[in-house]
Amino acid sequence: MPKRGKSTPFKKVFLNTFLLLFTAFIGGVIFLIVLSRDLPSLEELRKFNPETISKIMSSDNRLLKELYIQKRDVIPLGKMPQNLINAVLSMEDRDFYEHSGVDIKGIFRAIFIDIITLSTRQGASTLTQQLARNMYNTIGFKKTITRKLKELLTAIQIEKTFTKSEIMELYLNSVYFGHGRYGVQSASLYYFGCEAKDLSLAESATIIGLLPAPAYYSPINHPEKAKIRKKIVLRSMNHVGYITDKQNEIALAENVIPETGTINSGLAPYFSEHVRRELEKIDEELNINLYEDGLIIHTTLDMEIQSILEKAFDEGMERNQKVLQKEFINSPKKLKKALSKTGFPKDSILAIINDNRPIPPELKNQFLVQGAAVVIDVKNGEVLAMVGGRNEKEYRDHFNRATQAKRQPGSVFKPFIYMTALEKGIPPTKQILNQPLVVFIDDTVRWNPQNHDGSTSMLETMRYGLKKSLNLISVRIVKELVSPWQIKKNAEMFGLTTNIRAVNSIALGVSEVYPIEITSAYAAIGNNGVLNKPFFIKSIENRYGRVLREFHPDSKEVKNEDLIYIIRDMMRSVIDEGTGGSIRWKYKFRRPLAGKTGTTNGKTDAWFVGYTPQIAIGVWVGLDDPGVSLGQTQYGSSAALPIFANTIKEIYNKKEWPIEDWEMPDGVTELEICSETYDKPTRYCPLTKEIFLKDYKPKNLCSQHKSAFDRFKSKK
Fold first, then answer.
1. What per-residue confidence (pLDDT) applies to 625?
2. 3-state DSSP call for residue 109?
3. CB neighbours (10 Å) of residue 283?
4. How far is residue 265 from each of residues 56, 181, 272, 294, 541, measured CA to CA in Å?
5. 29 CB contacts (<8 Å, ≥6 apart)?
6. In the prediction, which pLDDT does 291 show?
7. Which of 356, 371, 423, 548 is most buried per CB count within 10 Å?
8. Which of 385, 381, 388 has the alpha carbon at shortest distance from 407?
9. Which residues in 83-93 are b (16+ Cβ under 10 Å) and which e?
10. Please, which residues have CB within 8 angstroms of residue 605's CB and are 6 or more apart in sequence?
């Protein structure tokens, strides 16, 4: 009995201890089950795909713009240098290839140090645990026991799901390196302007040195601290045996601290921003996320042509800005009118102009010359280059004047007026009186249009009227030969989507147009009447190279080729003998070319749009405030044409395209006619050549030259 009494307390203690431990165990299991409810499953782990950068690329494979929420550019492990991998192993997890996601020795070491130091600063996370934390925000980043347990559980799952190489690849592609950069590729491009595969040992050590505190060790903001971290990483690699003493010494001596982030993805900013907006219109349809899916967007832009256009545009803007500023200085009345909308002191703006300082934001609309230019492939509608405004950093904005600015086209609109007349069977030789006229808009308002230079003459042909851009001729065509509604219909057929008002003043191009649309319309004339809707994107690929969508020309024939040949030939006269003649005699461009100058009333808009068999180029120059004149001498031929001429000449110098010309279609014929009456000639007529639609060629014999003496009589 006594023995049994002595054993009872021991049994009770044993039983109570067992129950306590069992309860704790069950409680721990339940706690872990509850804890793991919001952790990723094996299936979710297998599907893990980190957010990556989408890239907008030019047709010649230049990076134009990157789209992202987190700056991450995923690359395979095989494109990462071994020095980089060794650096992260030596600093973050030397036993990476031995443990199963959790380093037991490291945990006990961390616990011991934390107890001794009475802190929680000593970490024991493996690379796998760090990856778990980076992959899933449900784990959290606050240093708590709960977070640590979540980390351990997810790390074990990750080790079951991925190989060590895959874990290393995921880690180096997802870890944060500061300045909004995630992953080694993005960090390499930002800090050193090279891909990760090209990193030197010293650069690799600098990047890995960022990991504990990217903002604190940034080589841009804290270069001295970054140097110290590089030294620590190299020493650790040397201690483990990844590098020799000599390699360590060389890397220490290498100065790899950048002055600023070197990546620049701002090429063709107006074009790439337009592409981004176009993509946002179709992202739901394609079930894509532009900022997370790592898409490759192949565009139509030719970076060589873009660079040529930007250079000519920038030079033109500088030249036009000087003209404007000189006029402000010499014209107090003009200066006062421009300032009246701003409330800015006169002396202040004069000081800015005289010192050639940047125009302040509040004065840009009235004092900064702006512009737009676009290059389109005539045959398929691809936009090869685009500038939507000033390129200087202090002036660049998000308003793309090539696609968003509605401006009066002036005489650039006239080809649609002449085309409408030709379509009715009126030949280029039709003579119209080049004399002033008064148009009554209503009982009280009269319109008295004039030629741009105030000149007049007697009868002039339609060809002459177009090549010399005579306003009185185009006004009389609208008043006497065609209706504004017919012109409006033709303009809309050529892709103009703005409100073209069917009024008499349509003759002078008073209805606003978008620069890209008027350029596309001219391209259709260059393409024998086939309109290609301008497009910017060729294809969209996912991160694995699978094509999600391809884009093709949207084409339709809008006018008969015979009619187009006539109006195009008249527009060639603009270049060869008319207001665009300086392209030939000054800029020495000899290729087949047609086009038109344009200047609006008050010199507020200056245009030149032209085309060859290969490309069409449109240039607009003006101020964002359409009430401010570019200058009294700023016609389309002086403000816009030089940009066009320098661009097209350099494009053809660089591209070395074969010489092409438009072929005369069967429905058009070239005839010798009397150069004075434009009828069929007699043997006594002075001769010239003209082209006609075969159905509307001259039928009457010249009645003025019946003998050899009539030629001299007509010249009295």
1. 94
2. helix
3. 15
4. 9, 14, 10, 15, 19
5. none
6. 82
7. 371
8. 388
9. bbbbbbbbbbb
10. 407, 408, 409, 410, 598, 599, 620, 621, 622, 626
Residue 394 sits in the same domain as residue 330 = yes
Q: What is the pLDDT, as a whole number, of residue 173?
A: 86
Q: Give a yes or no: residue 500 inside a domain.
A: no
C-alpha distances (whole Å) from 167 to each of 49, 171, 358, 641 are 12, 6, 52, 59
pLDDT of residue 573: 97
pLDDT score for 472? 95
Residues 6+ apart with CB under 8 A from 50: 72, 74, 135, 170, 173, 174, 182, 183
Domain of 117, in residue numbers: 70-253
Rounded to the nearest 10 degrees, what angle do helices 201-208 and 184-192 cross at?
110
- Using 70 as the pLDDT threshold, list the residues of the chain that sit under it: 1-7, 10, 14-16, 18-51, 70-71, 100-124, 134-155, 257-265, 440-445, 709-716
Report the alpha-carbon distance of residue 706 to residue 60 in Å, rounded. 64
274 shares a domain with 196: no
The tokens for 399 are 């308003």
Q: How many domains does the chain fold into?
A: 4
Number of Cβ atoms within 10 Å of the Cβ of 272: 25
Residues 130 and 143 both lie in one domain: yes
pLDDT given at position 364: 93
CA dihedral 152, 157, 163, 164 (to 10 degrees): 0
Residue linked to tokens 């800005």 = 321
> What is residue 106's predicted lDDT score, i.e. its pLDDT?
55
DSSP secondary structure, 322-378, as one string: HHHHHHHHH-HHHHHHHHTTTT--HHHHHHHHHTTPPPPGGGHHHHSEEEEEEEEET
Do residues 362 and 621 make contact, with C-beta atoms less than 8 angstroms apart?
A: no
Phi, psi at 538, each rounded to 5°:
-90, -45
pTM of the model: 0.78
* pLDDT per residue as tens digits for the range 303-319: 999 999 999 999 999 99
Range list of β-strands (E), 558-676: 594-599, 605-611, 615-623, 668-674
**Cα–Cα nearest to 571, from 673, 482, 675, 469:** 469
Q: What is the DSSP string of 603-615?
A: G-EEEEEEE-SSE
Tell whether 83 and 98 lie within a shared domain: yes
The amino acid occupying position 587 is Y
Kindly give the pairing relationship between strand 530-532 and strand 555-557. Answer: antiparallel
Decide if 495 contacts 531 (C-beta within 8 A): yes
Task: Let me know: does 87 contact 205? Beta carbons within 8 Å.
Answer: yes
pLDDT for the residue numbered 133: 72
Residues 226 and 276 grouped into a single domain = no
Q: According to the model, what pLDDT value does residue 22 have? A: 62
198 secondary structure, DSSP code: G
Digit-coded pLDDT (tens) for 116-137? 544 444 455 787 777 777 665 5
